[in-house]
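Hi all, posting the design record for the shared folder.

TITLE: backbone redesign
STEP: 1 of 1
STRUCTURE INPUT:
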């Protein structure tokens, strides 16, 4: 089960956070700081799966953005790793080359994330569903 989803830049600033379990605001800040430090301090040669406290962190880097997903111990790491990639593919298609600014200010990111995960659809299917739900799309 996914506990949280973070998009972070190389400077360690959280650009998007979504929690699927209740975490108090002051604890979120501490959690994000520790999680970000854990991911940013790793080299490209190291594994993208980290055991952290009572859950696992799965992350991928895309240009200046890191996407970090916190999951429980029973979740399949490779499935989450592939899910992150599919999520980024959908964002790229939706925004025509997604940027950090797009992620910071566009509410459809959360919808795309939910659609991708719940339906475990292909990137093309998720893009069609996201465009159907977006009132600003033509």
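Okay, here is what came back for every position:
SEQUENCE:
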């Amino acid at each position: 089960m996914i506990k949280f989803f973070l998009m972070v830049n190389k400077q360690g600033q959280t650009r998007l956070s979504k929690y699927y379990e209740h975490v108090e605001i002051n604890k979120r800040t501490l959690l994000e700081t520790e999680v970000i430090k854990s991911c940013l301090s790793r080299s490209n040669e190291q594994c993208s799966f980290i055991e952290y406290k009572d859950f696992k962190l799965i992350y991928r880097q895309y240009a200046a953005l890191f996407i970090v997903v916190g999951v429980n111990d029973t979740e399949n790491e490779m499935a989450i790793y592939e899910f992150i990639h599919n999520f980024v593919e959908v964002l790229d298609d939706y925004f025509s080359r997604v940027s950090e600014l797009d992620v910071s200010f566009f509410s459809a990111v959360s919808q795309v994330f939910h659609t991708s995960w719940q339906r475990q659809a292909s990137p093309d299917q998720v893009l069609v569903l996201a465009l159907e739900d977006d009132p600003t799309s033509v």
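COMMENT: Residues 111 and 133 are 8 Å apart (CA to CA).
Let me know if anyone wants the other runs.
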